[in-house]
Each structure stands twice: as structure tokens, then as C-alpha cells.
Design goal:
The chain is α/β, with parallel strands linked by helices. It is 27% helix and 29% strand. The chain contains ten helices and 16 strands. Helix 7 links the parallel strand 13 and strand 14. Helix 5 packs parallel to helix 6.
């Protein structure tokens, strides 16, 4: 079968297409015929999920048919950029009939991360304000859609007025056109001086201090990305102390398989009905054939997308 591998070479993530044997399902696994797979910036950033060393199977999320039963499933899927791949049976999520393969492939990683941020750790409540920095990213758009479906209000930052206009149609209440750490004043104005209840920082350390400034009393700050490659930020201890803020990270890197399976159970309970009812419809920006994965990666690195980039197998 055709499959892509990825390796860090001279500070860059390099893809390589190979012909390899079809994988065999072991205990607790299901083999799927991959129909589509989603791209995620984190897996293609050297120093993020990509470390120096031997090439590894590329791709982390997919949707496809279970070999033998034909069941439509989606889920976290190491080696997703291939014709066949394996999924932990506990993490195989049924695909609602109203989702296309491309839409289903956009769901697993981004929306489970968003469930972690908004529900599991963020305790988002109806009517609260959510600030999303870099809102046009895959995770940013998913956070917008999920927060809107949960009846929260959303403020988003982006350097592109065009992207912000698109996202207003998907529930964005307040658009702030900026790539700089200069948005807290507007956030406070729009929230009548109270500040945001929850902030989703997809950008990184360059806006960390501004995110803290933007939060209100008992605000929560989720650290989920660092596309700016800035891994440190000014830490205002007095603000964290006086406003009783909570800062948390969102990553599955150190979690056990049992813990990861637990997040899937929460997602299926809270979010899957929202997809099945059409309350959330994944925003797919562009679809590439699997053979054009290099082009899909280049498109993602160009920052032209609003939402998810998907490869179709």
C-alpha cells in the first residue's frame, strides 16, 4: 500500500512516500481503509511532535471504513496518511450519516482538543465570553464552532480581515484584526470591562501576557499551540493571583492510552450529538489527493487556510 513517512532533516519536516505492507490489526485495534485524513500543524513542526531520528509514519487523524464490517469511523490514527491504518478500538468514533469523509477527517484531533479546552478543563458555561487568538487555524475554528454551539460568545483575533469576515458567518461575535499583542483593550471594551472567561491561545508566547490581561475574574487560559515558535512569555503573577486565574495545557503527549480513551468518551457524550444534529459542521478549507500531500503541507505553511486542510485517499 501507499503510505507517507515524515522525518526531521536540517530543521525541516520532510515527507517521503513509500510502498509498505498493509498493517494487521492486533488485540484492541481496528483496521480501517482510509478515506480521508486531516492535516495538523503540530505534527509538521520540527521540535513539536517531529523530533530528529528515523522516519515515522505520518498523519494523526483519519476517517474510513472498518475492514470486514464496513462501519464508518473516525478517530486518532497514527500513520493516517496511508491507504490503510490502525485505530485503537476504544477511540474509534462512529461517523454521523450527515458528515462527508472529508468533514469526518477534520473532527478527531481538533474537536477532541477543543472538548478538552472548553468542557473538560475550561468548564465553559452558557453566555460566557471566549477569546480565541489565531482563530482561523483548524483548532481556532473548531473552538469557535463548539463555543457557539454551547451558547457562549466568541472574540477572535486574526491578521486577515478576509478570514474574519468568513468566520462571522460561523458565529464569531467580535472580530479583532491583529497579529500583535494589542487586543486586551478591545476585549475589555466588548465585555463591558469584565474580561473574557476563557482564552484559547493557539499562537504562543508572544501573546501570552496579553491573554492574561484579557481575562476576567476566575478566568481560564488554555495553552494549545505556539505557531509563533515563542515558548516563553511574561508571567504577571499579581494578575494571576488577584484575578484567581487558572492556566492549563492541552496535550495528549504524556497521557496513558486509558486517559486518551477517557477523552473520547467525553467527546462522544458531549459533542457527537452536535455533529449528528448539524449544530456543528466542520469547516473544510481545501481538499488535496493523498499523492499531493507535499502540496497540502505547503498550503498549510502558507497560512492561507480558514479551517481544516484534508487529504482524500
Amino acid at each position: 500500500m501507499k503510505a507517507f513517512f515524515i522525518q526531521a532533516v536540517d530543521g525541516k519536516a520532510v515527507l517521503e512516500k513509500r510502498d509498505i505492507p498493509e498493517p494487521k490489526a492486533g488485540p484492541g485495534q481496528v483496521l480501517i481503509k482510509v478515506k480521508a485524513a486531516g492535516l495538523n500543524r503540530g505534527e509538521l513542526i520540527v521540535g513539536g511532535l517531529i523530533k530528529a531520528g528515523a522516519p515515522k509514519p505520518a498523519g494523526q487523524e483519519a476517517a474510513g471504513e472498518v475492514v470486514g464490517s464496513g462501519e464508518r469511523v473516525m478517530g486518532r490514527c497514527p500513520g493516517a496518511f496511508a491507504e490503510y491504518a490502525l485505530i485503537d478500538a476504544r477511540e474509534a468514533i462512529p461517523v454521523p450519516p450527515n458528515l462527508s469523509w472529508e468533514e469526518a477527517a477534520s473532527v478527531p484531533l481538533t474537536f477532541m482538543v477543543v472538548h478538552d479546552m472548553l468542557v473538560e478543563q475550561g468548564n465553559l458555561k452558557k453566555g460566557e465570553w471566549v477569546l480565541v487568538t489565531g482563530i482561523s487555524s483548524g483548532v481556532g475554528v473548531a473552538a469557535l464552532q463548539a463555543a457557539h454551539a454551547l451558547d457562549a460568545r466568541v472574540i477572535g483575533t486574526s491578521g486577515s480581515s478576509k478570514k474574519l469576515e468568513v468566520l462571522k458567518k460561523h458565529g464569531l461575535d467580535v472580530a479583532i484584526e491583529t497579529r500583535k499583542p494589542d487586543f486586551s483593550k478591545t476585549v475589555l471594551e466588548k465585555t463591558e470591562g469584565k474580561g473574557a472567561n476563557l482564552c484559547v491561545n493557539t499562537v504562543g508566547g508572544s501573546v501570552f501576557a496579553e491573554c492574561v490581561k484579557s481575562l476576567g475574574y476566575e478566568g481560564r487560559l488554555a495553552i494549545v499551540g505556539y505557531v509563533d515558535k515563542v515558548l516563553k512569555g511574561e508571567f504577571d503573577l499579581e494578575a494571576v493571583h488577584s484575578k484567581r486565574l487558572r492556566i492549563f495545557g492541552v496535550s495528549n503527549k504524556l497521557r496513558t492510552p486509558e486517559q486518551r480513551a477517557g477523552t473520547v468518551a467525553g467527546f462522544r457524550q458531549d459533542f457527537l450529538p452536535l455533529f449528528a444534529s448539524g449544530r456543528i459542521k466542520p469547516l473544510v478549507d481545501k481538499v488535496f489527493p493523498l499523492g499531493e500531500l507535499e502540496a497540502a503541507k505547503a498550503y498549510m505553511e502558507s497560512d492561507r487556510q480558514t479551517g481544516k486542510i484534508v487529504v482524500k485517499v
